[in-house]
Amino acid sequence: MEVANTKFKDGGGMTYDPSKVDLRDVDPVSGVPYLHESFILHSFVPIRYVRRQKPFDDANFVGMYPEGYRMPTILTKDAKFNVVKKTSFDNEVICFMVGTETVGHDEEKPIDCVTNHNSTRPGYLNLNARGTARQSKSAPAMTRERTKTMLQTAVTKRGTTSRTYLRDQNRKQEQSEIVEEAEPLTPRAVSAKPSAKVKRKKLPDQVEYALALKHPQWPEVAKEWETRSRNVGWPGKRVEKKIVSEGCHVTPGAHPKSEDPELEWEYNFFQAERILDNEAVSSVQRQCFIIFCLLCGECLEKRSLSLKQLKSVFYFVCETLDPNIWRSNKAVCVNMLIDTLLESIQSGNLPNYFMPKNNTLSHLEKETMVSIKDEVAKIRENPVSQLLELTQTCAFVNIFPFYCNVGELFKPFMADAEEFAKRGEVEKSVRALCTVTDELCNSFYMDSGFEKYAEAYEEIGVYVSSLIAHGVSGFEESIEYFIKPLQGDSEASKHLDFLPTLLSQKNISLSENLPHSEIWRPIRMCRLLIQKFADAKTGSHLYDHLGCMYHSASKGNDEHRKDALQRADAAFKAALGKEDCGIGTYVDYGRFLCKTKRYGDSLPLLRKVIMKESQKPESLNFYGKMESLVADEFMRREIDALDGVEVLSCAYAYYLLCECFIKMKKKADLLKSLKQFEELCVQTSDARSYSLLGYVYMKLRQFKKASVHFKKVQELQPDNKLVAANIMACTKFESKNVSDESLNLEKKMEKLSLWK
After folding, report:
1. Which of 75, 396, 603, 750 is the most exposed place for a label (fewest CB within 10 A)?
2. pTM score, two decimals?
3. Euclidean distance between CA atoms 596 and 745, whole angstroms
4. Is the distance from CB of 369 to CB of 361 less than 8 angstroms?
5. How far apart are CA 157 and CA 166, in angstroms?
6. CA 68/CA 49 separation, integer angstroms
């Protein structure tokens, strides 16, 4: 099949050479720039999804799942509005049971059955017992009744090993699909109400057994495959020799128009396909084929086309298209697959990949061919539109967050496609692409829709714990496959270098919208970021954030409190051991030590912050909803009032230092630190620092001094409602004021309801 130049039906005979098409060009059929089409096609079948799928070790198992081409799980609703799984792709797994009999065309070879091609079409055959004249059609070696007996014998001989093997393969797939961290803490170990463990049953319920007989020699009908020229060098001489040396199989099966279907067999190359899938097909080629099948989903569902036919088209295009193009322009590759299929239907000839004389369309009536052609032509008009329309009634649960409105998500990006087609503004398109990626990551992070259906559709359960990994990987893939070819290595490196910081900031920001029971999400994402980006010298801010999250997780979870605190301590120590450790980490660890009543251990950390920052305070610490769980009542009020508080590291170090001296009953050190704290506030004129100083004086019941500092905050921030309440509380308890002289840290202060 020649597919080097693709003809467009309505393009006036126009042709194009895929090797000369750039990612910035526009597809002449759909009018969509290849950049935008490639990105959306890639989003529907991300490369991370493809790489987790591995073909089975045992080549006898065939079907999309064991061959490593498993389609995304698509849920839709039936007539009664029940959520159901679409079953048009890979539900059937067939295990070919290879009988002991061998097949060949030369009686001199040690074979049991001789091939007979009389009265059969290319690719089909009859079998005669050894010694029977090949020209004779009488007394064939095997009828369908006998094949059933042979199959039963083969199944019995294999025993339960098939099921055992499938379970092992299932376990391998499962392990490859979840990005597991080194730490044993399960994602929901700190959840207030951990969900019940879902039993994952990822293989189809039904595994069919089929008989196959070994044909040790490469068959005459496939000689052309062995000798034909391959301009781009795919699949390679080594793979070609290996495939030919393995021979093929014959299986019971007749041509749709066979005159004697009960006696007819067909050549089957499932072993050769497995070699190609394992050793010649790249991840990106595999990705494009899955997209191709997804686009042809309706045809597959109606059985107007088969996966075997799509696979032939795919292998032919792999043979003729430069391997570099698959990576650089996914849109042109998918379009070429559709164009090749459409051209085959128009010509009425879709050859089997290994046996080009076997036309897999030869049995179809003209009316059927016209119908199939119209269906495929509609797909080719705008592949992107076809996929986006599908999301209006279906959920791609392995790919997109369950509650994500995919059409709305890509709408701004498709609007940019129109502008790009006119002006080619790469930077604007890259910004739009990054925005979509960012929104997808946010949606994955927040999504909880999978859990509702995880038990009914058990294969979904595996993705619940890896949603964040999906979102994070999206950024890396966007940089690798789109930003790098558009803006070059230097710009891509800048994006990659900033990625850990961006994702860490995102994790902090998004965690503000989560209930405490969902704290496993920021913990898991932080651990994932550490796994991806931290090394022996860098990654301090990631460990710092992880320590803060574990500290928060210890609150309200008595069963896991001790473990969470130990993990927090270990994370903070790991952060301090990195070369890129910032001053804010010393504050966070000091805060943690204060809360765990290790005041003496906290002092040197806090003093280091003050020594480094007091002359020129620059470092900032942020505390939000999750951190408020382990904050004192004063800081909690600040966080709640402002939806998170950003404070000078030096000021917060003084605040914590004073707390240590109060608890350790060191009056002289406390008064000295308070004086220095006041000097810092005057130096910076920072409202948040004055508030912290005021809170220290409230703790000491020195309400007059506290009021002075709160009034300073009011001058700097007239609209601050919280400070007005603080001033009112100080006025209310002025009669209980304590002076410096009468301050007695040995005496236990009476507890006051300050804001009631």
Report:
1. 750
2. 0.85
3. 20
4. yes
5. 17
6. 11
